[in-house]
# Entry
Amino acid sequence: MDVKELSREGKLEAIPGVGKGIAKKVTEIIETGTCKRYEEMKSEVPVDIIQLLDIPGIGPKTVRLVHEQLGITTLDELEKAAIEHKLRKLPRMGAKSEEKIILAIQRSKEMDKRIPLGVALPVAEIVMKYLEKCPYASNVTATGSLRRHRETVGDIDFIATSDAGHAEAVIKAFGSMPGVTEVIGSGATKSSVIFRNIQIDLRIVDRSSFGSLLQHFTGSKEHNIRLREIAIKKGLKLSEYGIKDQKTGILTPCGEEEEVYQRLGLPFIVPELREDRGEIEAAIAGTLPDLVTGSDIRGDLHLHSIWSDGTNSIPELADAAMGMGYEYLCIADHSRSRGIAGGLSEERLIKQINEIDAFNDTIESSRGFKVLAGSEVDIRADGTLDYPDHVLEMLDIVIAAVHSGFDQDRRTMTSRIVRAIVDEHVDIVAHPTGRLLGERFGYEIDIERIIEVAGETGTAIEINASPQRLDLSDINARKAKESGVMLAIGTDAHSIDHLGYMEFGVHLARRAWLEPGDVVNTMGIKDLLRQIGRG
# Structure
């Protein structure tokens, strides 16, 4: 029943946990749109002080302590007090707490300077579609860290070509684009604007040197330095304009990006690998990986339905997955402890398993598709799982995840996750560091130990493809690969639209040097279940 209706009928107290006091305040909010006590508290608390709670590791008790003892109301005041060693003198504080606060503030400021890929990419797509409609613009391409699909970007860079005499028309169109709030600078072939609070740069180049400029501005800086070193050894000079023969002084522009690498005696290196993490050496040795692609993915292993906090039914999700050419998907709704996310009780989980079985009976033989019954099972604070063994044994796939107790220290959190990994029922560890890009750093954890134990038990580690998470990171996913640990790419989809997040996961996997054989969901259903010990 609707809360408003319950209030009108005087039945709010019939709701478990709701007493006279809460019922009175709920009714007041319904009738007036606010609450007297809430307004009183707002007037007593400085507005800026709420921002302190955004810093990882700083909770309400700490905020109240520093406010009452030192009169701190802003982040800058807190940082200054920590640097001046004033915090360590407060009750329940010390040098270590002070150091953690300084580090958390610094990391938070660094986070604010970069834009999560999931925010930047949709903006870039809007700008690209706009520029592509300009009749004088061709070969519109995003460059920089966005093209390399780094998890965060500093700004967004585009290059494009234009016929002679029309570059200024493209620059003018770019500066007058709907949504541009400021033109920082503009010239005949360059322009920088602020669009949706993000700086976006555009450069127009002649078609003959498009490849040279594309390679140069894609970067990374470290990768390009290594290429220039190779060029020098060959008597050449590499620049954004082309490749110059040092003896003759002749500059040869590259119309295609592949030409840059070819003229340096190297095979083409895809943008995702250009971070100077061994790709140059691998190119020289002829050992570049055959990277996983979206077409290699045969199913999504982490989806939520209306049974918990998703917005689509199991048949709807399955139909969308079949439309993408998948052979299977895994429904992994939350377990019972995640009450806030509609976590399933044992009884509801069993009902869901029965629904999945019935659905498979109607569709598997006719369309060759299967829905796997899974669960995103909470790893409790002590490392035990949220369901008993007899329930876990009923599932096709068990995905274990941490959703609470993020403030545990490194040793405790690592032991907690290790205990889950060694449980014979756990097949995949989800979003293993718990980070939320642009919002929250991951919890303290010994990721090398997690990878080591996963390798010993044959447990897969997830690359959570949600652009909010992108967890495991590319660096740690590569560590997992090198340790022989299988990775599972899952979208953590909560709606049909989120199935498209797989693209983010695949690009991250490519940055991690993963090949199809490193990813469990490039396997067919039988091999997948055999790999995780369920076949």
The first strand starts at residue 115 and ends at 116. The radius of gyration is 27 Å. Residues 346-367 form the longest helix (22 residues).
